[in-house]
């Protein structure tokens, strides 16, 4: 497995380089007024410095989380509960991640993210199970804040403070997405360097994340300027009578906005069948990914796989899928995002089908499992831009955040149920064959992916002649790539 992992990372990086060159040839970068505006470039770079540091700290914690818990001699069933606590806290804190910026302010909420994630990383130094559970809860809060608050701050300052054109927003998030893939690959390599080459142990990447988060907080504190508590974008706030900025009226308004947002998002979800089907696809597909995050380490680690390098391979495969999407939807090939989504779900189903056989108890085939994991990550790279494009087309922009929050609720619940089922099977098979629970879980994930495939086909049937779901203009492609 050691040689296989190193060979795979070289081949995948070469593939990514080839796809990047092909993408630039087919979709050449366009010069925009934003590139020539020095004020915008300074504003953009200030945001990206903090945001990319936060993403880097987050990625560093991916490769060795499961390995750390095993290093502390916890059973697989106990580790499953730790993961469930993290997912459950994501569900519980998701509403607060949308409400806190309206009460504390976006900048202060970003600082809260840095503080809570630092505390989460430092809990990894403890071998106490309940301290680690508390760390997972803090991690759920931090993940919820990372996925919403930084982007909310940027959009608000871009439009409301600097009054830049909204058309310039995609350039920032496209640049962030490009860097994000590279950071993910690099995080695996650095984590492997610290944990295995330098023999510092699986806790080392978590400790490295702490100074990164401190630097992120320093950039937010010094470069992002000040904002008033309760600041909200135009069109998203209720008209308030004059009063003290921190008074009860402002907090009541924030709660009212949150309640109205949840209600409007649920109504949008239930009134449009396209949105409902798309939410079903997202819940099924991404809940499988959460379960995969738990399972890939125990499948490969017993066979001597370098976990950091394997993680980099998985992220490189996802990057290759994202670049392949860009090539496939170019004017040269004209593949529709809906077709790409169907292909991604089909590839994910096939990879999970492979895993049900490669993880047979007593007859493991780690090389086949590794190949299946790479195929699943390649499918992820195709899936996210495709589903993002469709979401941008069928969900109204002003309701998108609340609708996506409703999407994430069944997503996390399915993942929690899956991990709890795995925990129960592991706990109840003391006399059975080791690995049976893992194989059954992959089989269950394959069934879930088959259900996602049926939902995609239903979406196709419903929107066969729907021009909103088709990629026809250059502007549409740019909007889809943004997500």
What does this structure look like?
This protein starts with a helix and ends with a helix. Helix 4 runs antiparallel to helix 14, helix 10 packs antiparallel against helix 15 and helix 13 packs across helix 16. The chain contains 16 helices and no strands. The C terminus is likely disordered. By secondary structure, it is mainly α.
Task: Looking at this protein, list some descriptive labels.
disordered C terminus, 483 residues, mainly alpha, 0% strand
Q: End-to-end distance, in Å?
A: 35 Å
Contiguous uncertain segments of 5+ residues:
228-252, 429-433, 473-483
Radius of gyration: 22 Å
Q: Main β-sheet: number of strands, strand sense, barrel status?
A: none
* Structural category: mainly alpha
Q: What string gives the helices and strands in order?
A: HHHHHHHHHHHHHHHH
Task: Count all strands and give the number.
Answer: 0
- Portion of residues in helices? over 70%
| Helix run count | 16
What percent strand?
A: under 5%
Query: If you average the pLDDT, what whole number results?
Result: 82
Shape: globular
What order do the helices and strands come in, and which of them pair?
Layout: H1 2-26, H2 38-60, H3 65-71, H4 76-104, H5 106-122, H6 129-161, H7 169-197, H8 204-223, H9 248-271, H10 273-300, H11 307-328, H12 337-358, H13 366-394, H14 400-427, H15 436-462, H16 474-482
């Amino acid at each position: 497995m050691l040689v296989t992992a190193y060979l795979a990372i070289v081949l995948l990086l070469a593939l990514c380089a080839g796809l990047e060159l092909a993408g630039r040839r087919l979709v050449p970068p366009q010069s925009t007024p934003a590139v020539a505006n020095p004020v915008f470039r300074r504003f953009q770079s200030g945001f990206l410095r903090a945001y990319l540091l936060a993403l880097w700290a987050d990625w560093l914690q991916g490769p060795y989380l499961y390995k750390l818990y095993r290093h502390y001699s916890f059973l697989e069933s106990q580790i499953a509960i730790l993961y469930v606590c993290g997912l459950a806290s994501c569900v519980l804190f998701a509403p607060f991640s949308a409400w806190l910026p309206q009460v504390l302010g976006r900048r202060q909420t970003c600082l809260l993210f840095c503080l809570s994630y630092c505390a989460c990383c430092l809990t990894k130094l403890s071998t106490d199970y309940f301290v680690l559970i508390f760390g997972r809860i803090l991690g759920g809060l931090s993940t919820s804040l990372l996925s919403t608050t930084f982007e909310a701050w940027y959009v608000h300052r871009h439009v409301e403070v600097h009054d830049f054109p909204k058309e310039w927003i995609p350039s920032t998030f496209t640049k962030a997405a490009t860097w994000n893939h590279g950071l993910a690959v690099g995080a695996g390599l650095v984590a492997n360097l610290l944990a295995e080459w330098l023999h510092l142990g699986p806790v080392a990447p978590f400790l490295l994340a702490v100074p990164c988060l401190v630097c992120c907080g320093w950039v937010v504190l010094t470069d992002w300027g000040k904002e008033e508590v309760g600041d909200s974008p135009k069109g998203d706030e209720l008209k308030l009578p004059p009063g003290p900025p921190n008074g009860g009226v402002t907090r009541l308004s924030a709660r009212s906005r949150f309640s109205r947002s949840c209600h409007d998002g649920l109504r949008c979800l239930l009134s449009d069948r396209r949105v409902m089907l798309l939410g079903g696809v997202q819940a099924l597909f991404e809940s499988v990914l959460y379960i995969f995050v738990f399972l890939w380490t125990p499948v490969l680690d017993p066979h001597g796989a370098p976990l950091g390098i394997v993680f980099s391979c998985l992220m490189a495969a996802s990057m290759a899928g994202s670049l392949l999407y860009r090539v496939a939807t170019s004017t040269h090939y004209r593949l529709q995002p809906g077709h790409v989504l169907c292909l991604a779900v089909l590839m994910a189903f096939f990879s999970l089908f492979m895993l049900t056989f490669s993880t047979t108890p007593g007859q493991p085939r780690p090389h086949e499992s590794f190949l299946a994991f790479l195929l699943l990550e390649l499918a992820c790279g195709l899936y996210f831009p495709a589903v993002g494009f469709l979401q941008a087309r069928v969900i109204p922009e002003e309701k998108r955040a609340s609708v996506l929050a409703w999407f994430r609720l069944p997503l996390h619940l399915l993942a929690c149920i899956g991990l709890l089922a795995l925990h129960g099977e592991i706990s109840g098979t003391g006399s059975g064959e080791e690995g049976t629970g893992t194989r059954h879980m992959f089989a269950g994930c394959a069934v879930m992916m088959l259900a996602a495939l049926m939902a995609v086909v239903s979406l196709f049937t419903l929107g066969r002649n729907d021009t909103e779901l088709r990629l026809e203009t250059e502007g549409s492609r740019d909007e889809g790539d943004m997500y």
